[in-house]
Amino acid sequence: MSNMEPFLSKSQKIIVSCILEKDKKILLVRKNKLFDNLKSFGFGYFDIPHFLVDFGEDPEFVIRKRLAEYFDYEAVSADIVAVKQNLSNENSAQVFEIVYKVKGDDFPDKEEKCDLFFFAGKEDLASYVFLQRCKDINSYLDR
Known about the structure:
It contains 3 helices and 7 strands, in the order H-E-E-E-E-H-E-E-E-H.
């Protein structure tokens, strides 16, 4: 084994997530179903929208672009409310998450598809989202 092999097996990822509210409800999407190419834990559960940032991309641009692509939603503002990092995959990947609170015009009148996305009240989050993630989302809402 060369001296470089331990470094080659390590990676970093940047993920951008967003809190998007409509009528005091939060947009949730089904993990791995609509657009999650992160191969993340929790297949089938819901979460706030999140996207992988490719090397050289601006995180805020990614949020705005993806919301426009998937939901025809134009974000007027995107403010960072949290930055988190954790190690995953047996400490072989360091994942940074930048969480934005996004505001814009009214969300387009798209038909909510319960198997893909919908808006949930703050009091209902625990029914759809993992407990720790639910706590995180509630803390983001308070900022």
